[in-house]
Design brief:
The chain has 2 helices and no strands. The longest helix is centred in the N-terminal third of the chain and has 47 residues. About 0% of the residues are buried. Helix 1 runs antiparallel to helix 2. The radius of gyration is 21 Å and the shape is rod-shaped. The N and C termini lie close together (about 10 Å). It is an all-alpha fold.
């Protein structure tokens, strides 16, 4: 049965709170992962570089920051992909 414009609008208004909640959760998870990885890098730097005086290169620290950015991007895009899959699945039911 083809859907009508009113039915589509009712569906969208019914699902909008869940979609917005998903966006907020994805943004919160992205912030959390970014904050935790930044904190772990700061702890690593304080203990191993300043505390023990180990000579670590700038390339290694750049690699750690790149890895933290990758983790944040994986959480962000994975969450948005999951949210899109949820919307498509609910729309096809």
């Amino acid at each position: 049965m083809p859907s009508t414009r009113d039915a589509d609008l009712r569906w969208l208004l019914g699902e909008l709170p869940w979609i917005l909640l998903g966006v907020v959760l994805v943004l919160s998870a992205t912030w959390f992962v970014g904050a935790v990885t930044g904190l772990l890098i700061d702890i690593f730097e304080a203990v191993f570089i300043r505390g023990l005086g180990l000579p670590l290169s700038y390339e290694f620290m750049g690699w750690l920051y790149d890895l933290a950015g990758l983790a944040t991007a994986v959480v962000r895009w994975g969450g948005l992909f999951a949210l899109g899959a949820y919307v498509v699945r609910r729309a096809s039911v």
